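Running this now, will post back.
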Amino acid sequence: MFDKEKYGKILTPLVTPFKEDQSVDYEAAVSIAEKLIADQQADSIILTGTTGEFFTMSFEERVKLFKVIKDAVGNKIPLMAGVGCASTIETIALAKKAQELGFEIMMVVSPYYTKPTQKELYNHFKKVAESVNIQMMLYNIPIFTGVNINPETVAQLSEIENIVAVKEEAELNPKQMTEFINITPDDFIIYCGDDPMILEAYTQGGTERIGGIVSGGAHIIGAQLRNMINMFLNGKVGEAAKMQQKYLPLFRIMGQNGRTNPVSLIKEAMKMVGYNAGIPRLPLTPGTEEEIAEVRKVMKKLQLV
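Update: finished.
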């Protein structure tokens, strides 16, 4: 059974800072993790997720980041290893490395580029789950993978003992969380994967089935998101709704000019509040002067800078 109390409501997918020469800045990554903990912006930290730009990192870089962060803060905050790769073979290999390093749970994204069938998705996740003795959170993000993990497939996968949760990209298919809830066991947990949808997630599943949010924006407003969730759960629905309305412009500005992955501008915002966030890895590029100015304008309006 997944211990959602241990991992908390705010799961922050750590950005991976890159240097000007495009190499991973492991020292800066440790400083980011430490600041997240000190500022209480995370209940748990996920490594090499989408916000961590895993898709441009080598296998060796991901393993090293797992080790460096676990050694630095593994006794201070729960950690999850993002181990998803394009192939089943490599995903299994990375899952085994995470287990060797002492991780107790991994997050596994659907294989990307290949657009597997539902049968192939089931086979992929099943083989990964069976390759290790740690828990697994499925990661459904069709906007990047090109394929949805359908509710019936999630239901089949939830029968596998160590597949205990799913992170759902909620905004493009907002009621699918309810479909997941209706078709899976009562102890299978749903995490919202879209910053603007967290209250909608709790409305669908309550505290029994919703674990919380996996939020890139939590680097900046994790504490505020936690307060918003607690306010909502304590019956202050109107006040929580006003908070969600307040922070929506922050989430939206990170996707300006057609940036599908917000990490480039999240890093710019992080720098404004004291993180050594580095730059994105090509093909993603840093914010332009105009984009940074727009981010700063929203940050100032929210009194974050």
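Strands lie at 10-13, 44-47, 79-82, 105-109, 135-140, 163-168, 189-192, 210-214. More later if anyone needs it.
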